[in-house]
Amino acid sequence: xxxxxxxxxxxxxxxxxxxxxxxxxxxxxxxxxxxxxxxxxxxxxxxxxxxxxxxxxxxxxxxxxxxxxxxxxxxxxxxxxxxxxxxxxxxxxxxxxxxx
Length: 100
Known about the structure:
By secondary structure, this protein is an all-alpha fold. The protein has one domain. Helix content is 61%, strand content 0%. The protein has helices at 9-32, 41-45, 50-54, 63-74, 84-98. The longest helix is centred in the N-terminal third of the chain and has 24 residues, at 9-32.
């Protein structure tokens, strides 16, 4: 992303579209970690689309936002975030696993 900033506006916008998709796929991957395993057809019908669940909470695309999600995906245990949007995302994903 840093290198794209040095390119033309047109190329940068095209690159940002791909980066946004990657960012959203990282958020979805994080959410999928909370989903219980599907063992029956009934559970498959109740499957949750984690990306749709938090799409309105995903922070604006930035290098820092992508690094935060990537950092979480690399940890084997929890982490404390003071960022309210990322905290809200984690709360929604937590509900998928333990409350729904």
